[in-house]
Design brief:
10 helices, about 40% helix, about 270 residues, alpha/beta, seven-stranded parallel beta sheet, elongated
Length: about 270
């Protein structure tokens, strides 16, 4: 589906035009029209800033005046951050994107006007448009970079064509939730490791400490693979220490961590 034409009125910097082309390409728009670009056209600075959106740059057309630029269009939006005199309807970007999608679906040619970097559009230029689109920006700082403004409208154009507006191009892995048996097994393992290290002190506070520990671990809603990662971490901490890192032998042979059992201690006769 052919999208709306993006029209830049007297853009100043080639770099800004290139960033506009890049924003358009990100969201499936390809028709860029320029009205009296200050530094002329074509522009190598624009091509460099477009980051390989060459198909937009190559197809860009240049006009001497805005009237001829919009002559073949059936419907035009003008973007502005300022309230204007007149009787034109004003829409937000979401509603404007959907309106453009509907008109293009009916076979109409559409466009969106963007003004100069420094001060936007003149009133008579806004007057050539059918409706106004404005962005919900902070009134105290309402000026948008021209590429940012084009990016916002290009995004709304693409989003309006999605079957599901919340859909994404990719998603995270689907993980099966852990069973309560797996979760309780982790609790038991962790509590045993903490008990061996004297974590639960004083003893009379142990029940409350266990409750808090379980509350923390149940809040996240772990999946089975995540419990395996946690159990592996706890197991590693349980078996090895900085004093005896992995590779130094069996942790069970470390006299600094595990005291020998009475039956393995030497007798008086042996000593």
């Amino acid at each position: 589906m052919r999208g709306p034409a993006i029209i830049l009125v007297e853009p100043q910097l080639g770099e800004n035009i290139g960033m506009v082309a890049r924003a358009m390409a990100n969201f499936g728009l390809s028709e860029l029209r320029l009205v009296n670009p200050r530094d002329g056209w074509p522009s190598e600075k624009a091509r460099a800033a477009a980051s390989r959106a060459d198909h937009v740059i190559d197809a860009t057309t240049v006009f001497d005046d805005l009237t001829s630029t919009v002559a073949d269009l059936n419907f035009v939006f003008a973007t502005t951050a300022r309230e204007r005199d007149g009787f034109k309807p004003v829409r937000g970007p979401v509603e404007a994107g959907r309106a453009l999608r509907a008109r293009v679906g009916e076979g109409q040619r559409t466009g969106i006007l963007f003004g100069r970097e420094r001060f936007g559009l003149y009133n008579d230029e806004v007057g050539l448009a059918d409706e106004i689109v404005t962005f919900p920006v902070d009134p105290g700082f309402s000026s948008l970079n021209i590429a940012q403004a084009v990016l916002l409208m290009s995004y709304e154009w693409m989003k309006s064509g999605l079957v599901d507006e919340t859909a994404t191009n990719f998603s995270g892995p689907e993980l099966a939730p852990a069973t309560k048996e797996q979760l309780h097994s982790l609790f038991g393992y962790l509590e045993g490791a903490l008990e061996a290290r004297g974590y639960f002190r004083p003893e009379e506070k142990k029940p409350k400490m266990v409750d808090n520990l379980r509350a923390v671990l149940t809040r996240a809603g772990f999946a089975e693979p995540e419990l395996k990662v946690l159990r592996g971490i706890i197991s590693s901490l349980d078996r090895f220490s900085p004093a005896m890192p992995r590779g130094d032998g069996s942790p069970g042979d470390d006299p600094r961590r595990l005291p020998a059992s009475p039956r393995n201690q030497p007798t008086d006769k042996e000593s």
